[in-house]
Structure formats: structure tokens, C-alpha cells
Design a protein that fits this description.
Blueprint (H helix, E strand, L loop, with lengths): L1 E5 L6 H12 L3 E3 H11 L2 H11 L6 H12 L8 E4 L5 H12 L7 E6 L2 H15 L6 H25 L2 E5 L4 H11 L4
Parallel strand pairs: 1-3, 1-4, 2-3, 4-5
């Protein structure tokens, strides 16, 4: 089963992604994790990504999709993958669809974790207190939310036109959201 987990920053993609991937017995691919791993390993794409990131720029769709291609070729990805926030632009959505099609695969479902901006701001403020994450600084959060609304939110509409999007209320406890995610997939 190939799934894409989407939602704004702070929606719970990382938390729910770990739980869901474990329950399904499939790997979870998250862009940031994969980029950091490629850089750490010094792969050709990792070296390209490192130079771009160190210059303070966004990593190109070409590099993201190249890393996805490498990851999809891994044996453990053969049974399916949970893509955690991997697709951030329509070209990336189109590219991921093409990569999956190369192996006669397609996304089985896009799960959109839906949460209000007010809830996001509250969650990220709490996370900043607990984890001291620089990217959860209030000014950085506003920038990330704006970038999300401008670049990533249109991808949801694209997927609604091209496939199956399930919106899941990502409010309540972690367990309550997990129950809704499992129910959306017909899991007990």
C-alpha cells in the first residue's frame, strides 16, 4: 500500500506517520529525514542537496524526486511506502506519480490531516518549549504556514482531481487522531 500523508506544519504527520507505518509494516519516507541521510552518506544527490541547503535555498524538485527514486528501489519499499509530507508542489506530485508508475504502482490514498491555524500555532509553541526547535520560533512558523498555504495547499486540490483524498480531523489526543487515521483506511 502506497500512502501519502499531508497537512500543514504541526498537523501531526510525523507522529501519525510513525504509528501508521509501523502498523502497516511499511517504511516511512519523510523528505527531511531522507535528505539528511543522503547528505550523511555522501551520495551524489546528497552532496547536491547539501550544497543547496548550506546556501539557504530550497532543494529542487529534481533532487527530491531523485532521492525518492533511490528510496523506492530499496527492497523494503516493495510492499508499499508511507510518504510523510514528501510532496510539497504540484511538479513533485506529478513526479511521484511518474516514479510510482515506473513500477506499476500508484498512491492508494492521500490522507490529509486537517487542523486550524490557531491549533497549529498552539501546538508549535508547545513543541518549541519542549524540544527547543529553532524552526518553531513564532516568526518562522508564520513563514512556514504562508509557504504551506501558497505552495503546498494547492497540491491537495490537485490530488482531489487525480485520486483519493481523505480528510481527517487532526484534533484531540494522538490516540484519537490515530483511531481516525486507521478508520479511514478500514483498519481496526
Amino acid at each position: 500500500m502506497d500512502l501519502l500523508l499531508m497537512g500543514p506544519p504541526g498537523a501531526g504527520k510525523g507522529t501519525q506517520g510513525v504509528r501508521l507505518a509501523e502498523a502497516l509494516g511499511i517504511p516511512k519516507f519523510a523528505t527531511g529525514d531522507l535528505l539528511r541521510e543522503a547528505v550523511r552518506l555522501g551520495t551524489p544527490l546528497g552532496l547536491k542537496a547539501k550544497a543547496v541547503m548550506e546556501a539557504g535555498h530550497l532543494v529542487s524538485d529534481e533532487i527530491i524526486l531523485g532521492i525518492m527514486r533511490e528510496q523506492l528501489a530499496r527492497p523494503e519499499a516493495g510492499r508499499g511506502v508511507l510518504f510523510d509530507g514528501v510532496v510539497r508542489t504540484i511538479p513533485q506530485a506529478e513526479g511521484l506519480a511518474a516514479l510510482l508508475a515506473e513500477s506499476d504502482r500508484q498512491l492508494d490514498r492521500v490522507l490529509f490531516l486537517d487542523v486550524s491555524d490557531a491549533e497549529i500555532l498552539d501546538r508549535l509553541a508547545k513543541r518549541r518549549t519542549l524540544e527547543s526547535r529553532a524552526d518553531d520560533d513564532p516568526r518562522a512558523v508564520v513563514v512556514r504556514l504562508r509557504a504551506y498555504r501558497e505552495q503546498t495547499a494547492p497540491v491537495i486540490a490537485w490530488y482531489e482531481q487525480h485520486g483519493s483524498v481523505t480528510r481527517i480531523a487532526a484534533v484531540g489526543t494522538v490516540d484519537q487522531v490515530a483511531t481516525r487515521v486507521r478508520a479511514a483506511l478500514g483498519m481496526p
